[in-house]
Amino acid sequence: MPPDPLVLDTQPLSIDDVRDVARSGRPVALGDRSREAIAAARRVIEDRTGGSAAVYGVNTGFGSLSQHRIEPSEVRAVQRNLVRSHAAGVGDALPDEVVRGMLVILAASLARGHSGVRPIVVERLLDLLAHDITPVIPSRGSVGASGDLAPLAHLALVLIGEGEARVGNVRKPGGEALAAAGLAPVELESKEGLALINGTHLITSIGALALADVQRLVAAAIGAAAMAIDACRASDTPLDARLHAVRGQDGQQTVARRLRALVAGSQILAAHREDDPRVQDPYCLRAAPQVIGATLDAIGYVETIIGRELGAVSDNPLVFPDGNDVISGANFHGMPLAIAMDLLTVALAPLAGIAERRVYWLLKASDSENPVNVYLSPQPGLHSGLMITQYTAAACCNELQTLAVPACVANIPTSAGIEDYNSMGATSAHQARAAVALARNVVAIELLVMAEALEYQRPLRSGAAVEAVHDLVRGRVRRLTEDRPPAPDIAAIADLIAGGAFVPITPDE
Predict the structure, then answer these.
(1) What is the DSSP code string of 159-209?
(2) Same-domain pairing of 229 and 195
(3) Could you tell me if 84 and 162 are in contact, meaning their C-beta atoms sit under 8 angstroms apart?
(4) φ and ψ of 292, to 5 deg
(5) How far apart are CA 257 and CA 155, in angstroms?
(6) Which one, of 306, 289, 179, 188, lies nearest residue 243 by Cα?
(7) Both 449 and 380 in a single domain?
(8) N or C: which end of the chain has fewer CB within 10 A?
(9) Domain, as residue range, for 242
(10) Any catalytic annotation for residue 56?
(11) 2 CB burial (10 A radius; 0-12, 13-18, 19+)
(12) What pLDDT band is residue 380 in, cutting at 50, 70 and 90?
């Protein structure tokens, strides 16, 4: 059965809503409540369009050109020119899923009835989704204030029959893509071009999809850490609930609880509990709840910010029909999202970093209590084993460390200084998206290494949940009996993580 449509009826979207539309093609429809809200706001704009009072973006120019008044006869031309002139993006095209996310987030924002567009504008955005018409949008050009102007302008070009779009795997002019679907270009009226380009929808789309991936990544990372406890013959004493209760950090307590559940019933723990010569394990094992927990807490903050933005109206000016008001402000400013996206990248660096340290500790096999062959080689010397997987993890971590330099703390003014403090949130979002992919690969390497190392503990078994993690890996990757390229194995496990395979095994509760 096809999924039920997502009905836009002024409500906030969820991360799952964005993911389902962007990646799975869930249909989207416009609800009656939104139609009424859109119509009410549009009446206010139409009343102001020919009036004598200056209303920004309705009968004025834009940015530093806002002092220039626009005659009623020029309203359509100025909105069309706005879209054309602002489509100044460069770089590789955004992935289709990000663009589809932008389309549904933009449509939902406009459908809340504070932007002053006509219903046809929202309907045409939904038509693009329904007909698999994906605007081709260069990835660079937004400074994360005044909205994601350049990327959204490239999106809006397709609505007016210009620009480029992908239909399936074929790139074609925007007008041809619309015509092939039986759709007419939209002739923009007052305020509509500005409403289409003056929001935070690029940053929000990347952020929502990144969080959808991070939720799956964290589950895999905790599963990998749990498998490492037994693969490295570490102690479970540092998981004692009393330790974490007196610290009082929520994420730390959550991770410790989940790790305890994963290793519960382990024969390996019992086998070395009484005569373990190691007084304390290295930080990468002993401090896993503290480090991963800190990441978890930061992710919780990012989810809050993205969740708010998925219910926001972020263009300018905004219409309030109850008071017949049109109010100029700065809801388009991306700083809340920029800080959150930079924090997400910062939070992923230690998640990956401590995983790489566990890989390193296991593979070096220099500790006499580390019961594996060096590099997990079936025959050291003749076979190199998984030596170079740690190199790859180290390279990914180094790039993560570089990406973790925040973009939001730098500023370059625009629009002749009238836009004098920008968020650079689009850069923050791009960095966060790259960070998720890098961290996923590091965790995939840890799962690969620890699954192999667990074989050296046989015939002893780990806890049932850890064994389930091990079985998932073994379902895609066979045991290492002689050297082979690890790259396909890493990619296969990364695909498992991206698909959410480890979520049911390591649930939050």
Answers:
(1) HTT-SEEEETTEEEEHHHHHHHTT-PPP---TTHHHHHHSS-HHHHHHHHH
(2) no
(3) yes
(4) -65, -35
(5) 45
(6) 289
(7) yes
(8) N
(9) 213-311+338-498
(10) yes
(11) exposed
(12) confident
